[in-house]
Amino acid sequence: RLVVVLIGLVAIVVTCWMASRPTASLLLDFQKWLGLLTSGLVGVFLMGIFLPRIGQVGAIAGALVSSAALWWVADAQIVNLYLYPVIGIGACIIAGFIASFLEPKKDTEGLTYWTLSKLPEDKGEAPQSTD
Predict the structure, then answer these.
(1) Where is pLDDT greater, at 97 or 1?
(2) How far apart are CA 97 and CA 116, in angstroms?
């Protein structure tokens, strides 16, 4: 319950802050912030699915580099806001993959798209009960 109240309070504060800003379109402002804040998350998600080498270091480094790159792009205003997710996801995946070589490779058997085929075949039998 406390988490719900805290998230609600944060949402109210952010809404009041966005409403008080001088902006031509609140929708464009919302889309800008959405692109800035969620593209790193999408990048980490995609790395976890498709890159078996990614670990904690790679995921955190990718998210941080994505945030920094997007902050710079938004501040410089060099591209349209609809390209923020493309830049953020790309920066996250590239930086995360490079940073993943800083930690030893872990066993990801059956956890990524490329290692799913290595799972044992299902024989169609129901699991045995331990009762």
Answers:
(1) 97
(2) 20
Distance CA(82)–CA(30), nearest Å, equals 12
DSSP per-residue string spanning the chain: -HHHHHHHHHHHHHHHHHHHS--S-HHHHHHHHHHHHHHHHHHHHHHHHH-TT--HHHHHHHHHHHHHHHHHHHHHT-S-GGGHHHHHHHHHHHHHHHHGGGS-----TTTSGGGGGGSPPP-SPPPPP--
Give the predicted TM-score (pTM) of the model.
0.68
Nearest to 59 by CA among 33, 37, 41, 36: 41
> Can you read off the two tokens belonging to residue 25?
């379109």
Give the Cα separation of 32 and 71 in Å (integer). Answer: 11
37 contacts: CB under 8 Å, gap ≥ 6? none
User: What six digits make up the tokens of 78?
Assistant: 């060099």
Q: What is the pLDDT of residues 5-55, one digit of tens each?
A: 999 999 999 888 877 878 777 787 778 788 888 888 999 999 988 888 888
